[in-house]
Design goal:
Order of helices and strands of chain A: HHHHHEEHHEEHEEHEEEEHEHH
Largest sheet of chain B: 8 strands, mixed
Largest interface: A-B, 96 and 100 residues
Oligomer: heterodimer
CATH superfamily of the largest domain in chain B: Bira Bifunctional Protein, Domain 2
Number of domains of chain B: 6
CATH architecture of the largest domain in chain A: 2-Layer Sandwich
CATH class of the largest domain in chain B: Alpha Beta
Strand content of chain A: 15-25%
Structural class of chain B: alpha+beta
Number of helices of chain A: 12
Radius of gyration of chain B: 42 Å
CATH class of the largest domain in chain A: Alpha Beta
Helix content of chain B: 10-25%
Strand content of chain B: 25-35%
CATH topology of the largest domain in chain B: BirA Bifunctional Protein, domain 2
Largest sheet of chain A: 8 strands, mixed
CATH architecture of the largest domain in chain B: 2-Layer Sandwich
Chain lengths: 370, 800
């Protein structure tokens, strides 16, 4: 028998098989129990040793050749089938994917987180107090007695209610009552910032009846105006990420500080990429094209306030400051309408808000780039 | 406080420029809000001579002038002034100039067919006076062609904000004193020539309210002529923003603005009997010279005569007893009023005035006689007349304040070293005295100074705050510790979690319309309502974060938004103990309108838009609670989310029966209608204060190694009463064999074919975690029996 010719013929038929079914039929025909190659293999048992020695390898070679060809052809046919199926499954990937909603963090929250981060580095904790305050904490303890002209300056929102100690309830006009609460609750030394909502009966383009303030308070031994100046410089440099922040200190008056200091900061009028002229903090306000803007009020805590906080003013002294948070946000991030902060307009929030993952950190920078 | 440079120079000998003065004022705490140069408004006006004046051919009252402006070429100008004539030197406004009165720009024009190249101006048109009878006539030798601003002279006006602690600087003299102390010139002494008076005051002066009015000094001046005040005084007053009225009134205003000493001049003819200070009677009324009637109370002081009230003391004079053009005899009042009395009265009457601003801050109690002398002197000079002798009723407070001080305090508190000599010089220049041991005597005009810190402020502000060197705060030793409290960390985490889940953070008003707030108040002791809201829309403190968010939803929907995810994390305001407030951190989240817009993919709801539903709210609530570290597997879903919610599609999430961590669901359609919202809204409110704080036990987690053997899943289907909450069955099954069942998950809720009416089929997949060895058949069977037995307690029957 011409095994080689049989092999060639089988391989040709395998190569010609057009699908897996046809291939399977060939497998049965050649290698099935009654397959032609299988039957040839069975003839080996009846052969003489010499015959087997000469014929055996040929039959085995035939079986292997057929088997390998079947496997190879199967792989090829399967690959082609998969390719055909996949070709059928193609989709237009320019179609829109399901939209994942994108949320945002409000600029006020973002800036409050930035402030907390910067001041934590200077050893300040965050303190809070009630917004519905009593007139003792908001005024009297801060050295603003009844019928003091400064009370009228505050445009206070009052409630008709009094607490059980007869103190008139009101909406705090500043975050300064937290000074008193912190001193009374934790004693000295103190390093805190106290951010939060404050309220004044005032409404126009640059004033809203509710806004945000952050109070700073340091009570310790030997604290003086130089420390105040350094703290404000350090904070503002870190906040605006600029080394050229220049402050101008002016004497002023706040009943709860003595001496009292109004702080101006130098700015440059700069044309932005959006064609809008903005004040950018930095540089000396006296330089050409520069100016000074009022930024915050501060001073050395008045002895009477330290006493109201239950501390001995001969032992403890310190400084306090208060600054508008919304204003800081506007200066840093370029919003120009305070009223939009409280409108909840999703278009505005999407534009000026921050990614949830823009968490201010010292290493990555506390500011979030546009 | 406004004043002109020339007025300042009445009191301060100085060569300093306007810029230097402004800079120094700022540096010493007298904040300059602006420096206005009135002459800047005269740009484009020129001294000009009328060469010829001809009758206008088309108008009887107009003339056609040829005007020499110094350029060589005369201009033709049409003019209607009766005094326009050849040879007159006046003021010509050229085209382009803006006329101060009226603010219009002059243009080249034709008047009745004749070209006119400008306008000859009257005093009133340039706002230099009231005269409008004709055009300005300057002296014949006035330099033709000179800019009129230059000819008229520049007298810049400073506008300075005076802080409430500085009544002494509410007069130009006090400002001059501060500037002199700061080295900007020499303070000129006040020249006072006391007038003794040659007759007795014709009516008695008393103070019957020595508390409110400790001192009332006065005198009469008879035979005065009350015309217009002299030009120089009018100019001073105008620079201060005051309208000149008549000489007598202007003189009292002038002394107030120059020396910070308010006074009042009565028309003696309108007074009867005696004049005196007394307490007002409750309900008594006073007609003030602003034409308004005020109802007074017994805590206020008035100046009255035997017939009735004239003045609201220290605040405003009376309508009927002020000086008029006909006044011939005048009575001067120079009094000292208790600052608190004036402040209280002014606040209650809501009445402000220049006098009040000074009295409530505290005028110089040692300046009454001087003030009276200055007034007398000016009246005699300007209005003539004869002064009576002075009547002194009562005495002003006279104690001298002495503050023990030590110059080292400047460094200790102010952080700047200033020599003893320099400190002494500053204090002396400001009028302070001192003994050898630094006991500092406070001048009578400085009621604000009563401690060492005040003295530090004086020497430091005059020395210059810019000289303070920055000094680093000492760094706190040791490892940096976190400063945020657990509550603060929770707040920050939740805020960012909500934003990461796709919601925009809003910050909305703390106050709401009362009606909006009222819908959200339930058993929290009532709303906090403002007594003086800025508007009715901002009256009630929010008892929930949802109404503010709903108002934002409405605004956004009105702008065309179809799907919204908004949240806010802030306080809600409840009633607390002892009449205080109870402010609780709350997260409000609203999901309004479309969760998914219509799309191309038909497999998704047929491509139709899908609205948010209660399960979206539940998913947010649970996800946020999980971030907050709440044990969400142990939470119970219970009803009673509140009347604001859809009664059948809302619930609370509780830890135990009482602690409500959150409420969620669809909002009630009636509520949405009330808020004018057409979209369906799902909402969540998370109560941060109710979330149990995680116990901090260091950084190490409890020990854990993933089990070696694979978990086994088994499905069960039960027939239960249709009203049985599925969650109850899931919880029960999960608890049926705590040792082996690690999870139970519902995957089918079926009603219909094969399920009897009034029942439903719930299918639950349980996950079993083997320990050291795999479950054998007997164990699996036993677990399944425990599951069915537990379910049976809820009436659940295993489906065959």
């Amino acid at each position: 028998m011409d095994y080689a010719a049989t092999r060639e013929e089988a391989l040709a038929r395998i190569a010609a098989a057009q699908d897996l079914d046809a291939l399977e039929k060939l497998r049965v025909e050649f290698l099935g129990k009654q397959g032609s190659v299988s039957l040839l293999l069975k003839t080996l048992g009846a052969m003489s040793p010499e015959e087997r020695r000469s014929t055996g390898p040929q039959i085995h070679a035939l079986r292997e050749g057929v088997s390998d060809a079947l496997t190879a052809r199967k792989t090829a046919l399967e690959g082609a089938a998969l390719e055909a199926r996949l070709a059928n499954e193609s989709v237009d990937l320019t179609l829109p994917a399901p939209e994942a909603p994108r949320g945002s963090i409000h600029p006020v929250s973002q800036v409050l987180d930035e402030l907390a981060e910067i001041f934590a580095d200077l050893g300040f904790a965050v303190a809070t107090g009630p917004e519905i305050e009593d007139d003792w904490h908001n005024f009297t303890a801060l050295n603003i007695p009844e019928s003091h002209p400064a009370r009228a300056m505050h445009d206070t929102f009052y409630f008709p209610d009094s607490d059980t100690e007869g103190r008139r309830m009101l909406l705090r006009t500043h975050t300064s009552p937290v000074q008193i609460r912190s001193m009374l609750e934790q004693g000295a030394p103190i390093r805190i910032i106290a951010p939060g909502r404050v309220y004044r009966s005032d409404s126009d383009a640059t004033h809203t009846p509710m806004f945000h303030q952050v109070e700073g308070l340091v009570i310790d031994k030997g604290i003086h105006l130089g420390h105040l100046k350094w703290t404000l410089e350090t904070f503002l440099k870190a906040f605006f990420e600029r080394d050229d922040i220049v402050l101008r200190l002016r004497p002023s008056y706040f009943p709860f500080t003595e001496p009292s200091v109004e702080v101006d900061v130098g700015f440059a009028q700069v044309n932005g990429a959006d064609g809008k002229s903005r004040r950018v903090l930095g540089g000396c306000g006296d330089a050409p094209g520069h100016g000074w803007m009022e930024l915050l009020g501060s001073g050395m805590v008045n002895r009477k306030v330290i006493e109201a906080g239950g501390l001995d003013p001969d032992e403890w002294q310190g400084f306090a400051f208060g600054i508008g948070v919304d204003r800081l946000a506007m200066l840093k991030y370029g919003m120009d309408d305070l009223r939009a902060f409280f409108d909840g307009d999703v278009r505005w929030l999407a534009h000026y808000g921050f990614s949830a993952f823009d968490v201010p950190t010292l290493s990555a920078g506390v500011g979030a780039g546009a | 406080m406004k004043f002109s440079l020339s007025w300042l120079k009445d009191h301060l000998e100085t060569e300093a420029s306007v810029e230097e003065i402004a800079a120094k004022l700022n540096a010493i705490g007298l904040e300059v809000e602006g420096v206005e140069d009135p002459s800047a408004r005269l740009a484009g006006f020129r001294v000009a001579r009328v060469l010829t004046a001809e009758r206008h051919p088309n108008a009887d009252k107009l003339q056609v002038l040829s005007v020499d402006t110094g350029d060589g070429t005369p201009l033709q100008v049409v003019c209607g002034a009766p005094n326009a004539r050849a040879g007159l030197v006046g003021v010509l406004g050229l085209p382009g100039a803006v006329v101060p009165a009226g603010g219009f720009e002059l243009k080249k024009s034709a008047i009745r067919g004749i070209e006119s190249n400008g306008m000859m101006c009257s005093t009133r048109e340039l706002e230099l006076g009231e005269d409008h009878d004709g055009i300005i006539e300057l002296p014949a030798d006035a330099p033709v062609g000179m800019a009129f601003a230059e000819y008229h002279g520049s007298d810049p006006v400073f506008d300075v904000a005076i802080t409430p602690n500085r009544p002494d600087c509410m007069g130009v003299y006090g400002i001059a004193r501060d500037l002199a102390a700061a080295g900007l010139g020499t303070l000129k002494p006040i020249t006072i020539n006391p007038v003794a008076g040659n007759h007795d005051c014709p009516l008695p002066i008393r103070t019957d309210d020595p508390e409110g009015c400790p001192a009332f000094y006065g005198r009469a001046i008879r035979g005065v002529k009350n015309g217009a005040a002299p030009e120089w005084m009018q100019a001073r007053l105008k620079s201060a923003g005051q309208r000149p009225i008549s000489a007598l009134v202007d003189i009292t205003n002038y002394v107030m603005l120059a020396y910070g000493r308010p006074a009042h001049a009565y028309d003696l003819a309108q007074l009867s009997g005696a004049i005196f200070a007394r307490r007002a009677r409750d309900g008594e009324t006073a007609l003030a010279l602003n034409g308004k009637e005020y109802t007074l109370d017994a805590e206020m002081t008035v100046i009255a005569d035997d017939k009735g009230v004239h003045d609201i003391a220290g605040i405003m004079g009376g309508e009927h007893s002020g000086c008029s053009e006909d006044t011939t005899d005048v009575l001067l009042e120079v009094a000292y009023f208790d600052p608190q009395r004036i402040a209280g009265t002014g606040q209650r009457l809501n009445l402000t005035s220049d006098a009040r601003a000074r009295f409530e801050r505290g005028v110089d109690p040692a300046f009454l006689d001087k003030g009276l002398d200055l007034l007398t002197q000016l009246i005699l000079e300007i209005c003539g007349g004869e002064a009576s002798r002075v009547v002194h009723a009562g005495t002003p407070p006279s104690g001298t304040k002495v503050v023990p001080y030590h110059p080292s305090l400047a460094l200790q508190l102010g952080g700047v070293a200033i020599s003893d000599e320099a400190q002494k010089a500053t204090l002396t220049a400001l009028g302070f005295g001192m003994d050898a041991r630094w006991n500092v005597i406070v001048p009578s005009w400085r009621p604000d100074v009563d401690g060492g810190a005040d003295i530090v402020e004086e020497v430091v502000r005059i020395h210059g705050l810019d000289n303070i060197e920055s000094a680093p705060l000492p760094r706190i030793d040791g490892v940096a510790r976190p400063t945020a409290t657990p509550a603060q960390k929770l707040e920050r985490k939740l805020r960012r979690a909500a934003a990461a889940r796709g919601a925009h953070e809003a910050v909305t008003w703390s106050f709401l319309p009362e009606a909006d707030a009222a819908v959200f108040t339930e058993g929290n002791g009532g709303l906090w309502l403002l007594a003086n809201p800025i508007s009715e829309d901002m009256k009630a403190m929010r008892p929930s974060l949802l109404p503010g968010l709903l108002a934002a939803v409405r605004r956004n929907a009105d702008r065309g938004a179809a799907g919204l995810r908004l949240f806010e994390l802030g306080r809600r305001y409840l009633r607390g103990a002892s009449g205080t407030s109870d402010e609780r951190l709350t997260l409000g989240l609203v999901l309004a309108g479309e969760r998914t817009p219509r799309g191309w993919d038909a497999k998704n709801n047929g491509g139709k838009a899908q609205s948010f539903d209660a399960f979206d709210a539940k998913a947010e609530a649970l996800a946020l609670l999980a971030e907050a570290g709440a044990p969400i597997d142990n939470l119970q879903v219970m009803g009673e989310a509140g009347a604001q919610f859809h009664p059948g599609q809302s619930a609370t999430l509780r830890l135990g029966p009482k602690t409500v961590l959150a409420r969620f669901g669809m909002l009630h359609p009636a509520l949405l209608k009330k808020f004018d919202i057409d979209l369906p809204v799902a909402a969540v409110e998370l109560f941060l204060d109710a979330i149990p704080a995680k116990k901090a036990a260091g950084f190490a987690r409890s020990a854990y190694a993933p089990p070696a053997l694979q978990a086994v899943k088994r499905d069960f289907a039960f027939l239960v009463d249709a009203a049985l909450p599925a969650g109850d069955l899931v919880r029960t099954i999960r608890g049926a064999d705590k040792a082996n069942i690690v999870a139970a998950r519902l995957f089918d809720d079926f009603r219909g074919q094969g399920v009897p009416d009034g029942q439903k089929s719930l299918a639950i997949e349980i996950t079993l975690q083997p320990g050291d060895k795999s479950f054998d058949e007997a164990e699996l069977k036993a677990i399944a029996e425990r599951v069915t037995a537990a379910a049976a307690k809820l009436g659940a029957v295993l489906r065959g």
